[in-house]
Write a structure and sequence with these properties.
Elements lengths: L4 H4 L25 E9 L14 E5 L2 E3 L1 E8 L10 H4 L5 E2 L6 E6 L8 H16 L6 E6 L6 E4 L2 H9 L25 H14 L6 E7 L16 H13 L2 E7 L30 H8 L5 E2 L9 H7 L2 E8 L10 E7 L5 E3 L3 E2 L17 E2 L3 E8 L7 E9 L9 E10 L5 E11 L10 E8 L2 E11 L2 E11 L8 E2 L3 E5 L7 H4 L11 E3 L3 E9 L9 E8 L5 E9 L9 E7 L8 E11 L2 E12 L1
Parallel strand pairs: 6-7, 6-9, 9-10, 10-11, 26-32
Antiparallel strand pairs: 1-12, 1-14, 2-3, 2-13, 4-12, 5-17, 7-8, 13-15, 16-23, 17-18, 18-21, 19-20, 19-22, 22-23, 24-27, 25-27, 27-30, 28-29, 28-31, 31-32
Helix pairs in contact: 3-4, 5-6
Length: 617
């Protein structure tokens, strides 16, 4: 059955670390009458127009010019061509909330796409091309309207591609799966509206920045009541459009069915009737155009090669203008307010949403578990599961670092709460800690706080939230906890320690591991950094030798350092574990980015753990 989207969006997050700084977006603190919009300006060849200023724009609200109170030009870094595959594909083991990121949600509509090998193949390729187009700081998620292996926001492309590969269209004979088929059901559901609504809810609390939905579907017609109609989707659509616009989400829709027979909408048709009026008459794929047009995006349809248009969509969304203007009408009005955005440049096309709903009254911020990094307290977190002898529960080892915000003028406490959530959003253990941060001038070395808490085998999202003096921050990390007691060969998480460690160590942590984890991943050649991994042979079979390899790959994917060794049977303790420790060869590495790979192998069985790091001058 379909897992609720709210649960799907509680899944994991691995943040990308951008190679350079991004444009900082304005923070709106000007009241509930301010409306935020993303505006893309394209030339006649559909290339983004750069270099515009606030003076180049006019915002008409109900035909009346409105003052622009905030403006920012944003250039999203393009996809980087790396010489080493690991620089694009290897996950990042230290998560943070210090970047502004473009958030891309790939919605794969398996409920309203006809079961057909060509449709499935085309849909997967559209989604894969979207992953290929992600910039170095982009985060993406994959969700389904009915069933599939969803993946929450991450920069880990292997996780995104695994989710995409689980896609299978479910519509047969023109009928969607029973739970998504409204007219004859006691409780009517439309799974595409429901899923997009969940996406809007999840993104509503995200930091300012571009929020793009890539909708891959077969499309469908809407029902707006009237004589002989069995249902009226007008209220649900109105609510959806309102939520998408309030969340500032842009939808780009792709028709996975390819070239349509005569009567289908052409790829050039972008002007739509108002979908919330009973007089609207929509064709079978016009839902795609409606979702796109209502949010300032566009639809790609009536072509057998929709996947080739994915780079165009990402190029269009790579340069945009983030504008805040004051609403002109009564803030209590609930109807859609039409807006017109004009640019004083000839022969340009402006893409933005066609209206907005009243921002309404300011509500208290909800504690939404959606996997999106947020807040103004800069956090860095790393996590690593570790087995505990005699217990099925593992211990989750973590380290947290905070870069003191510029406004900090005196030492102050920060409350930290770390919680593990499963795929249904249920919490499984919480760790509460307090750390003290000092002004930047008095804290050349940012303090790190280690910790640990028990966790059973399974897949989790670890959320660390910080609060201090009105500020807050949150980061999320994916983690798979092995069944150490049963798996024939498994490994703990990879832990790096910067030596010398802290003068005093928490006794409960030192009882578990001989190192103190660090979130630092930028090192000097003179630094002394230890690498720790614990190997386990679960079950009741005989202990066997295990070959260990620690490799360091450079930016050209060449092996810059290689260390090999063998754990013999006698190296394993009575608890069937052995500790592997090496030192990073920093003194022998040139400045640059590197990938550490630690692999354990016994016959056909092997496990590998990785960590990115950099050597700086």
């Amino acid at each position: 059955m379909k897992i609720p989207l709210s649960a799907l969006l509680t899944f994991a997050l691995l943040q990308a670390q951008a190679p350079g700084p991004q444009t900082q977006l304005p923070i709106f603190r000007t009241g509930v009458d301010v409306v935020e919009i993303d505006v893309t300006v394209l030339d006649k060849d559909r290339h983004p127009v750069k270099g515009l200023t606030a003076d180049d724009f006019t915002i008409l609200d109900r035909g009346k010019p409105q003052p622009i109170v905030a403006f920012s030009a944003v250039d999203v870094p393009p996809p980087v061509s790396y010489s080493a595959p690991w620089m694009r594909e290897a996950p990042i083991d230290v998560v943070s909330n210090v970047e502004n990121r473009r958030l891309v949600t790939i919605v794969m509509d398996d409920a309203y796409t006809e079961f057909n090998p060509d449709n499935g193949k085309r849909a997967k390729q559209i989604a894969r091309n979207a992953v290929d187009e992600l910039g170095p700081a982009d985060l993406a998620a994959v969700v389904f309207t009915f069933m599939g292996r969803s993946q929450n926001f991450t920069s880990d492309r292997s996780r995104l591609l695994a989710a995409i590969d689980s896609y299978l269209p479910k519509q047969r004979g023109g009928e969607p799966p029973l739970p998504c088929f409204g007219p004859h059901q006691p409780t009517q559901r439309k799974c595409d509206i429901e899923t997009l609504g969940g996406v809007a809810e999840a993104l509503s609390g995200a930091p300012p920045g571009r929020k793009v939905v890539v909708l891959i579907s077969g499309g469908r017609a809407f029902s707006f009541g009237g004589p002989g109609a069995t249902e009226n989707e007008t209220p649900d659509l109105s609510k959806l459009f309102r939520n998408l616009q309030r969340a500032n989400v842009t939808v780009y829709a792709f028709d996975a069915r390819g070239l349509l027979p005569p009567g289908g909408m052409s790829a050039e048709s972008q002007r739509l009737p108002d979908p919330t009026t009973p007089s609207s008459s929509l064709t079978e794929n016009e839902s795609l155009y409606t979702f796109a047009a209502s949010t300032g995006g566009r639809a790609i349809a009536n072509t057998n090669d929709p996947q080739s248009h994915v780079p165009d969509v990402f190029r269009e969304s790579s340069t945009y203008y983030f504008i805040g203007f004051r609403a002109a009408t009564d803030s209590n009005e609930k109807l859609l307010r039409k807006i017109d955005v004009r640019v004083n440049r000839p022969a340009v096309q402006v893409q933005t949403r066609n209206g907005y709903y009243s921002p309404g009254k300011t509500s208290v911020a909800r504690d939404v578990i959606n996997g999106i990094p947020s807040g103004d307290l800069p956090l860095y977190v790393t996590v690593a599961p570790l087995a505990v002898p005699g217990r099925r529960e593992a211990e989750m080892i973590l380290a947290t670092r905070m870069a003191p915000p510029e406004r900090v003028t005196a030492p102050r406490p920060v409350e930290l709460t770390t919680t593990a959530y499963d795929s249904e959003g249920k919490s499984h253990g919480t760790l509460r800690q307090t750390m003290t941060i000092a002004p930047m001038a008095g804290a050349p070395v940012q303090p790190e706080l280690p910790g640990h808490f028990p966790l059973r085998p399974g897949r989790y999202m670890i959320r660390t939230a910080a609060t201090s003096d009105g500020g807050s921050g949150a980061v999320y990390a994916d983690v798979d906890v092995p069944d150490f007691a049963k798996d024939p060969l498994s490994a703990s998480g990879l832990i790096l320690e910067r030596r010398p460690g802290p003068p005093t160590r928490e006794k409960s942590l030192s009882d578990l591991v001989p190192v103190v984890p660090t979130t630092q991943r930028r090192f000097l050649a003179s630094d002394d950094v230890a690498v720790f991994l614990r190997i386990y042979q679960g079950g009741k079979g005989r202990i066997v030798p295990v070959r260990m390899t620690a490799r360091v790959r450079n930016e050209q994917n060449a092996v810059a350092s290689n260390h090999e060794g063998m754990f013999e049977v006698e190296n394993f303790s009575s608890n069937r574990s052995a500790d592997f420790e090496v030192t990073l060869p920093l003194a022998h590495l040139a400045p640059g980015d590197y990938l550490l790979e630690v692999e354990a192998q016994s016959g056909a069985r092997h496990v590998i753990r990785t960590a990115r790091f950099a050597v700086v001058r």
